[in-house]
Specification:
Blueprint lengths: L23 E4 L5 E6 L2 E6 L7 E7 L4 H8 L5 H4 L4 E6 L4 E6 L6 E6 L1
Antiparallel strand pairs: 1-2, 2-3, 3-4, 5-6, 6-7
GO biological process, one term: axon guidance
GO molecular function: chemorepellent activity; semaphorin receptor binding
Protein name: Sema domain-containing protein
Amino acid sequence: VLSGINSSKRVSWFGETNLKNTTTLLLSEDSNTLYVGARDSVVFLDVSQPGTLKLQNKVNLSPSEEEIADCTKKVDNPRLKCSNFIRILLQLNKTHYIICGTNAFKPTYMYFVR
């Protein structure tokens, strides 16, 4: 038994078939929302109820067709590498967030208002 661990917090499982390469996590200031950066998207999970994860929103952040076409000329595995892998999720204040991704080898960032 580990001391100092709150037993009311339990690990839960969330899965969605189109959600891949989940590499970046950010917990909201109020600890009620978990932002998950993945390949071509960010999902917002409600984690306010112990033992339950509920999808609040999913934002599609796929590269444009033009960006994908440009990327496929440069890489050896375009199917995998010409996606937008979300690498940074940063909360600026209570309503504004920055999302940064690889965007088919044209790194980009955006502001998100919640």
